[in-house]
Amino acid sequence: MSCLxxxxxxxxxxxxxxxxxxxxxxxxxxxxxxxxxxxxxHRLLQAYDLAGADGLVSKKRGRPSNRRHSEExxxxxxxxxxxxxxxxxxxxxxxxxxxxxxxxxSRETLRxxxxxxxxxxxxxxxxxxxxxxxxxxxYGELVQIDGSEHRWFEDxxxxxxxxxxxxPELLASKLQPVIQSFQ
Length: 183
Description:
Structural class: alpha+beta
Largest sheet: 3 strands, antiparallel
Distance between the termini: 84 Å
Strand content: 5-15%
């Protein structure tokens, strides 16, 4: 007895084929429910009679696509991306490969190849995390001082603010005519 992993579509087919064999459903009705032709349902019935539920499983499962690119083409494209387009994203790299090199690759295929080769990280993988600053032991140990030359206060002077970094507490503020740099 073999272990069989069945998709929901194949399970639905199996259920309908069993209903046909139990004479609770006609081939024409099953064809309408499955969205297949009558002759295709007859082929499914023959496969079920020969191999049981295994006969309804797609023969393409686990096999590579017939439309896949060759390994040589994939390596050529990745070499070009490494040499000329290393700082490009997959969409722009695909456009430039088509424009400059005459190689047509879909951006999604190129994205997958670049990810596998370590040339591209998704946004989720690129995300960096900000490490929060730990609170200081002494009051005023970490203070932020800021000044502005803009005429917020007409011609009366520029603003200087001193703020404690961890909490929105204003330690000092000063209005002076000229901003002096700290030495």
